[in-house]
Specification:
By secondary structure, the chain is an all-alpha fold. The protein is built from 8 helices and no strands. It folds into 2 domains: about 60 residues, lambda repressor-like DNA-binding domains (434 Repressor (Amino-terminal Domain)); about 30 residues.
């Protein structure tokens, strides 16, 4: 059932009902009601979910196939999932990924100290 797959998706993303709902402009109770089957999940909501979270629409509707759409490139992933990022944001993330594990650890510690 689609409501069970919605809950499975949200949990696999590791986000709360509130956080999930914010991404698609639906309140926490709306997500809760969809997950427990007391609110239907219409095509507009399905499209929003699939677009925002890179979910395969066929999987969400039927349970067949993979949960997520495969992306052919890192840039396609950005274009689909990380809207609102400018070129500087993309550059920062791309360069971070290129860092060695030791340098990532140093960078994360630096960021942690900045946010305390």
């Amino acid at each position: 059932m689609i409501n069970k797959r919605l809950a499975e998706l949200r949990k696999s993303l590791g986000i709360s009902q509130e956080g999930f709902g914010k991404k698609i402009s639906i309140v926490k109770s709306g997500i809760s009601n969809m997950e427990n089957g007391t609110r239907s999940i219409n095509d507009r909501i399905i499209k929003l979910i699939c677009q925002e979270f890179n979910v395969d629409e066929n999987w969400l509707k039927t349970g067949e196939g993979d949960m997520f759409k495969s992306t052919s490139s890192f840039e396609e992933f950005f274009a689909t999932n990380l809207k609102g990022l400018d070129e500087s944001d993309r550059k920062i993330i791309t360069e971070y990924i290129k860092l060695s594990p030791d340098h990532r650890k140093i960078f994360k510690e630096f960021i942690r100290k900045m946010t305390i």
